[in-house]
Specification:
This protein is α/β, with parallel strands linked by helices. Among the domains are: 108 residues, Alpha-Beta Complex (Spore Coat Polysaccharide Biosynthesis Protein SpsA, Chain A); 90 residues, no CATH class. Helices cover 49% and strands 16% of the residues. It has twelve helices and nine strands. β2, α2 and β3 form a beta-alpha-beta unit. α9 packs parallel to α12, α10 crosses α12 and α11 crosses α12. It is globular and about 75 Å long. The two termini are 37 Å apart. The model has no long low-confidence stretch (mean pLDDT 93).
């Protein structure tokens, strides 16, 4: 079923908010409420949700929102491929607005998010503009709190500017992104052969075409991190696997924060293999592992004391280790099987 009430709106929207979606019954209402309360004129916004045949109550929640908030144009379209880049492309093909704002189904933009994105684009600050993530737990349990804290710490995610803020500047990539529809006409749609990292690859093409990717820390959104370690491991496995695939096409885009996890995993595996014949390799493995664990625990203690949440002392080190090991292992596996 496709729910598309476009015909009931006489005015063409100026801004299209596009959202890939699959089984997001817990957060889709939060996103839609956040878009509904934007300071940008509501009658100039449409929301295009490309749903990958959700099997939970996501579609019902969207339909209920459409019924209760008829003054915001919300369109639900099908994404039979059920991947994020395919969802974005289906939404782009259906979008009517001159300016596109890409959001996630488990995010919540601040009330001035759309207005600030449009202002930055119209001021010519960047061809693709975005802001800073405020990482919130994806649940109320201790694992969710630990994952959110880890995802906001430099030891967990490196020097990604969109996680920490700072000054407005030109960057490699931004989360989500907002741009004129004409940018897609110039550089093409999202690459559907990449199941993740499609945003980064899109921004590589923006920069190669002479465009600018602009980070404005005043553009802010809440991002809900994964609620448990199993989902976190699956998420970072996908990230690492598809990052390696993307880097095969654009090797010059490799950054140190991306190279460290696979290098760390490779060093552990190498030392373990060499330990069969060389006892010193076993000692080096233990020293490296102990040093790594020491710094992780140190971060856990620091964050646990700061937030007065003692579950974070073991929780944050576990989350960071899962992020590093899953990402690094998947990166190496992707290189091996490609």
């Amino acid at each position: 079923m496709i729910t598309d009430p476009l015909g009931s709106f006489s005015r063409k929207p100026r801004v299209s908010v596009i959202v890939p979606c699959y089984n997001e019954e817990e957060t889709i209402q939060v996103l839609l409420d956040a878009v509904y309360h934007q300071t940008f004129p509501r009658q100039e916004i449409e929301v295009v949700i490309a749903d990958g045949q959700s099997s939970d109550q996501t579609r019902q929640r969207i339909c209920e929102f459409q019924r209760d908030h008829a003054d915001l144009l919300v369109r639900l379209i099908e994404n039979p491929q059920r991947t994020i880049p395919a969802a974005l492309n289906r939404a782009l093909q259906a979008a009517q607005g001159e300016i596109v704002v890409r959001l996630d189904a488990h995010s919540a933009p601040r009330p001035d998010y759309v207005a600030r994105c449009v202002a930055a684009i119209e001021a010519g600050l960047g061809d693709n503009v975005g802001g800073v993530w405020e990482i919130h737990p994806g649940g109320s349990n201790w694992q969710a709190r630990a994952i959110a804290a880890a995802a906001a710490h430099p030891l967990g995610v490196g020097d990604a500017h969109y996680r920490f803020g700072g000054t407005a500047q030109s960057v490699d990539t931004v989360p989500f992104g907002a741009y004129r529809r004409s940018l897609v006409d110039k550089i093409g749609l999202y690459d559907e052969s990449l199941l993740t990292n499609e945003d980064y690859e899109f921004n590589v093409r923006v920069r190669r075409a002479g465009g600018k990717v602009w980070l404005d820390p005043s553009i802010r959104s809440v991002y809900f991190a994964r609620p448990n370690y199993c989902q976190l491991a699956r998420q970072y496995w996908r990230y690492g696997f598809w990052k390696a695939r993307m880097l095969r096409r654009y090797p010059a885009t490799l950054r140190w924060r991306q190279a460290l996890p696979p290098a760390f995993v490779l060093s552990l595996l190498t030392l373990l293999a060499l330990a069969i014949w060389f006892p010193i390799a076993a000692w080096l493995f233990m020293i490296e592992s102990a040093t790594y664990a020491f710094f992780l625990i140190l971060v856990g203690v620091q964050i646990g004391i700061k937030k007065r949440d003692w579950a974070l002392i073991p929780g944050v080190p576990l989350a960071i280790a899962i992020m590093h090991l899953a990402w690094g292992s998947a990166f190496l596996w992707s290189l091996l099987v490609s």
